């Protein structure tokens, strides 16, 4: 089975071509690195120079795709070049193969090659000098260092810089991804918060309008009809005011507006009075001391939505609102008579229970709502320390 070599990189093709043409130019001019009579030249003459040159140029084609193979074959070629008069182009291309083997090779090769070449440089420096006691023998170690250790060290430095840059880019991408995730989560949380506020602020008024506008045409008593229309008008105006405040918050430049007052438990009396005006028989029993602002807002909205649901779904009868502080928890309970199965008196989306459950969960509290015998009971337990489990 034939082995298919990887396709060389375009720049490697240019490097191989440049090295080969440069070597041929030097060969054509008769320029060699060693004279023919030198003792190390086993193959004198001009023609033996071309074989190591051609092999090294071919190895340049594999410097990225197969750096280990290129270095091994190139080492054999430079060894053969030492037995000829030598070509400077062959030596230069071999240094590039050494550099590429460290830069593009495996991490193990990148660690091993500089150590090996460093050790060879040390041996080539110490052993000839110890054997010959001639200062010129030190040039052998210098030559090995220039040809082998220097390019290997340079490749290791460049590789470390590239890996550091890749790691920094990866961290930047991860940071950007986390920032985008946080942004999406923040937008989602803000949309959910605005949806709860919009539902809780407007649903009560619109439910009252829907119920009284449905009943008004069937009333024969003009006085009762006027009272129903008055309730409709009152809730319409209040609903519009709430909508204007919410739109003002959402508009650009809303930060320059005076913020709307956040509902507190002190406003439960007015909330209950409005529910009574809408036709509910509401009794409020609230005993609360100092309560954190987030808990106050959540408790107010839960009571508000519970009264809205009672207005739409409950059978005629008393609605009891109870608030008590027990230890570090604010307990809320709203009970009303269960309605019949004919459906609500005003349309609803079912988002009210979801919003109340979300408000309780955001504070680390609990929420339940469901039938309790002949009653429908809403229960919530909100920790007075935000985020503390109830």
Task: Describe the protein's architecture and organization.
This protein has 390 residues and is of the alpha+beta class. It folds into 2 domains: 10-173, no CATH class; 265-390, 2-Layer Sandwich (Heat Shock Protein 90), CATH 3.30.565.10. It has helices at residues 10-28, 50-60, 67-82, 88-104, 107-132, 138-215, 222-250, 268-277, 293-313, 351-362, and strands spanning 281-287, 318-326, 329-337, 366-372, 375-383. It has a 5-stranded mixed beta sheet with strand order 1-2-3-5-4. The chain is rod-shaped. Residues 253-259 have low confidence and may be disordered.
Q: What best-fitting shape do the alpha-carbon axes yield? A: rod-shaped
Radius of gyration: 43 Å
Ranges with pLDDT <50 over ≥5 residues?
Answer: 253-259
Total of helices:
10
Q: How many angstroms separate the termini? A: 72 Å
The total strand number stands at 5
Oligomer: single chain
- Structural class, by secondary structure, is alpha+beta
What's the rounded overall pLDDT mean?
Answer: 83
Percentage of residues assigned to helices = 55-70%
Strand order of the largest sheet: 1-2-3-5-4
Largest sheet: 5 strands, mixed
In N-to-C order, the SSE pattern is HHHHHHHHEHEEHEE
- Taken as a percent bin, the fraction of beta residues is 5-15%
Number of domains: 2
Main attributes?
alpha+beta, Heat Shock Protein 90, 10 helices, single chain, 390 residues
């Amino acid at each position: 089975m034939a082995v298919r070599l990887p396709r060389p990189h375009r720049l490697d093709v240019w490097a191989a071509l440049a090295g080969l043409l440069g070597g041929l130019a030097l060969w054509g001019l008769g320029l060699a690195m060693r004279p023919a009579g030198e003792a190390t030249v086993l193959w004198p003459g001009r023609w033996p120079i071309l074989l190591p040159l051609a092999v090294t140029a071919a190895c340049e084609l594999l410097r990225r795709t197969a750096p280990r193979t290129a270095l091994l074959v190139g080492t054999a070629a430079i060894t053969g070049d030492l037995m000829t008069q030598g070509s400077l182009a062959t030596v230069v291309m071999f240094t590039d193969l050494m550099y590429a083997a460290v830069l593009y090779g495996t991490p193990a090769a990148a660690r091993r090659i500089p150590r090996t070449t460093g050790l060879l440089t040390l041996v080539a420096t110490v052993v000839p000098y110890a054997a010959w006691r001639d200062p010129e023998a030190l040039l052998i170690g210098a030559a090995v260092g220039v040809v082998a250790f220097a390019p290997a060290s340079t490749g290791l430095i460049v590789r470390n810089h590239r890996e550091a840059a890749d790691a920094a880019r990866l961290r930047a991408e991860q940071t950007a991804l986390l920032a985008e995730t946080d942004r999406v989560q923040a937008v989602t949380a803000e949309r959910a918060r605005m949806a709860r506020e919009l539902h809780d602020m407007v649903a009560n008024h619109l439910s009252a309008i829907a119920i009284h506008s449905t009943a008004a045409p069937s009333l024969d008593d003009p006085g009762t009809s006027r009272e129903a229309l008055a309730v409709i008008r009152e809730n319409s105006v209040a609903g519009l005011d709430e909508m204007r405040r919410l739109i003002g918050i959402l508009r650009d430049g809303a930060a320059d507006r005076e913020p709307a007052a956040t509902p507190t438990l002190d406003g439960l009396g007015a909330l209950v009075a409005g529910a009574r005006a809408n036709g509910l028989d509401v009794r409020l029993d609230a005993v609360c001391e100092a309560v954190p602002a987030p808990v106050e807002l959540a408790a107010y909205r839960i009571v508000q939505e519970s009264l809205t649901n009672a207005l739409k779904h409950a059978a005629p009868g008393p609605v009891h609102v109870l608030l008590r502080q027990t230890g570090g928890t604010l307990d809320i309970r709203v009970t009303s008579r269960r309605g019949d199965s004919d459906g609500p008196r005003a349309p609803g989306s079912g988002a009210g229970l979801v919003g109340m459950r979300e408000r309780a969960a955001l504070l680390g509290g609990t929420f339940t709502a469901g039938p309790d015998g002949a009653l429908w009971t809403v229960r919530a337990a909100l920790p007075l320390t935000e985020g503390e489990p109830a």
